[in-house]
Design goal:
- Helix 1 packs antiparallel against helix 2.
- It is rod-shaped, with a radius of gyration of 28 Å.
- The chain has about 110 residues and is mainly alpha-helical.
- The protein starts with a helix and ends in a 6-residue tail after the last helix.
- The chain has a domain of about 80 residues: Helix Hairpins.
- The chain contains 2 helices and no strands.
């Protein structure tokens, strides 16, 4: 993953976290208002309104869960990339440390200590 891709992934995580927090605040506001209205708003229309708010709340829970899953996936992508980078760096370092002895063997000389 290039540095620009990593930055874009981190920006995506931040944007999703910000959006998720905003959705949660809105959900809490609606739940609070719903609680206040439930005592004052009676009758069939009040029941329908409460059912509508309950359905909205259920759907918001799904949206928030999906956002959290996206955040987790992006974090996993970053972690996997960092592990892959570390593994590649280790492999390069290991092969680079063998270079002098390979050169010696191929050239018939002894340049390494």
């Amino acid at each position: 993953m290039q540095q620009s891709e990593e930055r874009a992934t981190r920006n995506g995580i931040t944007a999703l976290e910000t959006a998720s927090s905003a959705v949660l605040r809105c959900q809490e506001d609606v739940q609070s208002t719903s609680g206040d209205l439930s005592t004052a708003y009676q009758g069939a229309d009040g029941g329908k309104f409460q059912a509508l708010l309950a359905e909205w709340d259920r759907l918001v829970d799904i949206i928030r869960k999906n956002m959290e899953q996206m955040i987790d996936e992006l974090n996993n992508t970053l972690r996997d990339n960092q592990l892959m980078q570390s593994t590649a760096t280790d492999a390069i370092d290991q092969q680079a440390s063998r270079a002098p002895s390979v050169f010696d063997a191929l050239s018939g000389t002894r340049t390494s200590a």
